[in-house]
Amino acid sequence: MAQAQSPSSIEGDILVQLAYSAAKTFVTNYYTDLQAARTKLKDYYTPTAQVSWNGTNLTGGIADVEKLHTEMPPATYEVQCFDAQPLTPNGRGQCSILLVTNGYVKFGNEKDAPSRGFSETITLEPDTSTPPKFLISTQSTRFVF
């Protein structure tokens, strides 16, 4: 005989499903724009986003993030997997999402450019001006050697 789930368990399942759905959309759009439309990337970040790029903290806010993306050589990203977990709801029916992505990146246009593994940990915050959009509030990118 199946046990009935408690309301809090059902709510938690719904939050996990919503976090996964929002993260899947985010991952698809963000990595596509990271490869082909970097001028759009500033729209993915909160104005006070905290970003760490391979151990280097970018302290100049969105201007540093924009500079990083425009000065970076062309790159091809292949996301192998991602995991998304809802964080504590904010009392307005919204919650942040903890997103972890892993995959490979090739820098440069050469066909034989070496692939590097990468891992990113991102906190997505709900964008109150454009629900149900999410923005990056923290991001830590690491290359795996």
TrEMBL record:
Presence of the UniProt keyword Repressor in the record: no
GO CC terms: cytoplasm; nucleus
Chief location: cytoplasm
One Gene Ontology biological process: mRNA transport
Domain NTF2: 22-143
This protein's UniProt keywords: Cytoplasm, Nucleus, Protein transport, Transport
Main function: Has a role in nuclear-cytoplasmic transport of proteins and mRNAs.
The protein's name in its UniProt record: NTF2-related export protein
